[in-house]
Design a protein that fits this description.
Elements: E1 3-9, E2 14-21, E3 26-34, H1 48-64, E4 70-76, E5 81-89, H2 94-108, E6 116-126, E7 130-139, H3 140-152, E8 156-162, H4 163-173, E9 182-188, E10 192-199, E11 202-210, H5 221-241, E12 251-256, H6 263-270, E13 276-279, H7 289-294
Helix pairs in contact: 1-3
Length: 297
């Protein structure tokens, strides 16, 4: 049985979770955040030079932990993919679903369809006579860099997820996301606010905005609250329009993964107890939840 590394990428650091294989079981051995071996820039993140350095960093962790047989799982920011919902008759077969998804993706993507890996997710919503299937498209250059990294350290590629799936796995495991309820996971990173909306226990949509800064370059608390409240209110408005939502009640899970202090207090002071599922601050237990969710089978 192989050990597993879960690798997730934030705008500040990369996360590493380690599932250690034993004779009878697999257990979460560790979870940590590590410095990037190169500056984080979205446009050049998957540059081959960068990922050669990334491979060395992962290899160092593999050797340090004394691992010989290793599987790798990756969680990518949703920014690195295109995500689209495709509605089809409830009795559509897999061939029809695939054909329609490829056609819709071909009109949706900015590049050539042949340049992307199209992946059907497990997210499906029942709309009566129709079912809405979620597809994601990841550029093949990104997939290739991940494959190259895996091969360079003599390991095996287990899975590639987007961040919202890793968060869903973690939150479901800890009973924060439940069937029949609606949650908004708000992730604060170094440059962005991302709000992932889960309806009836399944991922539905992501809102992304830049962190608002004041003239001194610090996060503007008032503007931050306005953006967050807009994500929350827009989510509630969307839920009310969807037939599969049993209730418009929405709870917020707040995770500050970046280097910004004081934002948890802003949330606690401006959202009611009925609106808040929980609010977290930076600490060892919460900073690597994306990488942990990635390996919770």
């Amino acid at each position: 049985m192989a050990d597993i590394f879960g690798i997730a990428f934030t705008e500040n650091k990369w996360q590493l979770s380690h599932i250690k294989a034993t004779e009878n079981d697999s257990v979460l051995h560790s979870a940590q955040e590590l410095e990037y071996p190169f500056p984080f820039v979205y446009d050049s993140f998957f540059d081959p030079t960068n990922f050669a350095l990334m491979a060395l960093a992962v290899k160092e962790q593999k050797m340090e932990k004394g691992i010989t047989d290793l599987d790798l799982s990756f969680s990518l920011p949703v920014n690195f993919a295109a995500v689209k919902r495709v509605a089809l008759p409830i009795d559509a077969d897999e061939a029809t679903i695939k054909e329609q998804a490829l056609w819709e993706m071909s009109t949706f993507l900015t590049g050539k369809l042949a340049d992307y890996k199209i992946i059907k997710t497990d997210s499906v919503f029942d709309l009566g006579d129709f079912k809405e299937h979620l597809f994601m498209a990841i550029h093949k250059n990104i997939i290739q860099q991940i494959v190259n990294l895996t091969q360079k350290i003599n390991s095996h590629l287990k899975r590639v997820w987007l961040d919202f799936s890793s968060f869903q796995s973690y939150l479901t495991h800890h009973d924060f996301i439940r069937d029949g309820e609606n949650q908004l996971l708000v992730k604060i990173d170094t440059f962005q606010i991302k709000s992932h909306l889960y309806i009836q226990g399944q991922y539905y949509h992501t809102y992304i905005d830049s962190l608002p800064l004041n003239e001194q370059g610090a996060v503007d608390g008032g503007a931050f609250l306005s953006v967050l409240r807009k994500h929350f209110n827009d989510s509630k408005s969307l839920i009310r329009q969807l037939p599969m939502a049993l209730s418009d009640r929405l709870q917020l899970y707040f995770w500050n993964s970046g280097t910004v202090d004081g934002l948890s207090e802003v949330v606690l002071n401006n959202f009611t107890s009925a609106e808040l599922l929980t609010a977290t601050v930076n600490n060892r237990q919460t900073n690597a939840i994306e990488a942990i969710g990635l390996v919770l089978d």
